[in-house]
Amino acid sequence: MIPFDGKFAQNTSLPLAVAAYDSTRPPAGYVLNQTAFEILADVQDDDFKAQSSRSSASHQQMMQSMLHQPAQHQGAATSADVRALAANPQNLHFGWVCLDPQTVTVAIRGTELIHEWFDNFDFIPAPYGPVPGRGTVHQGFQLVYYSIRPSLVGLVRKYATGRVNLTLTGHSLGGALCALAAVDLMNDAAQNLAPVVYTWAEPRVGHGDFVSFYNSHINVCYRIVNVWDVVPHLPPDIADYEHEGNELDIDSGFSFDVVHNHVLATGYVPGMAKWNQQNP
Question: What are φ and ψ of residue 24, in 5° steps?
């Protein structure tokens, strides 16, 4: 197993996870439509509509919540701050596909409207759709993934030629989407790329059958988890959901505020910096 790279996590993966939230500009060091391309939701796609028709009402509401994300990262750091955020009528931006000479990087956003995410949460599973017969996953996460799948797969397929690495990163529900995307891309658009997955505050995505398949195909996967964050404990293991890959625990310092412990600025930036100081 390739060891966890704390400097890569802090200096590369984490800034990209933050940048994924911003639809107004590409990540630092990348140029719009040259080395950075938007991952966009397509709610008119036939496969998405089929998934939506089979999804629960709460998961359809989760999808709508994801589309209400503010256009720029707001950095809300408390539950009160998040509830005060103005929802976007429709934000189809879900992150970026970024290109380096040897690497395709996928950065997928979560949602700053985490109270809506919690309000619409349940534990209903569904068969993993992109690669049939590979287990069951959370139905709501899969519905959101199908909204971005045409854009994401198309971009990776287009730009994978000549590159050897595939890096995926995302925060919160964006981390869950990375897990669903990694298996899908390896089966199709990125068959010849070596995947590296670093996620932040990722919830549990699938049941044991999906996790076993994932772990047998994705060799480098680290989930960075703030020990005070509740989101990585959802859905609960009592509902038979499991985590894939390897967990790396960090400690941002205790807070009673759920949002403070979960968001990148207060839950993960200081916690990752502290981890690197303790593990030079």
Answer: -90, -15
Question: DSSP state, 246?
Answer: E
Domain span at residue 260? 6-278
Phi, psi of 266 (to 5 degrees): -110, -25
DSSP string, 2-60: PPP-HHHIIIIIHHHHHHTT-SSSPPTT--BTTTEEEEE--TT-HHHHHHHHHS-HHHH
Evaluate whether residue 215 is within a structural domain. Answer: yes
As for how many domains the chain has, the answer is 1
Burial class (CB in 10 A: 0-12, 13-18, 19+), 62: buried
Residues 6+ apart with CB under 8 A from 54: 126, 139
Residues in the chain: 280
Residue 135 included in any domain: yes
* Residue 1 maps to a domain: no
pLDDT of residue 81: 76
**pTM, full prediction:** 0.96
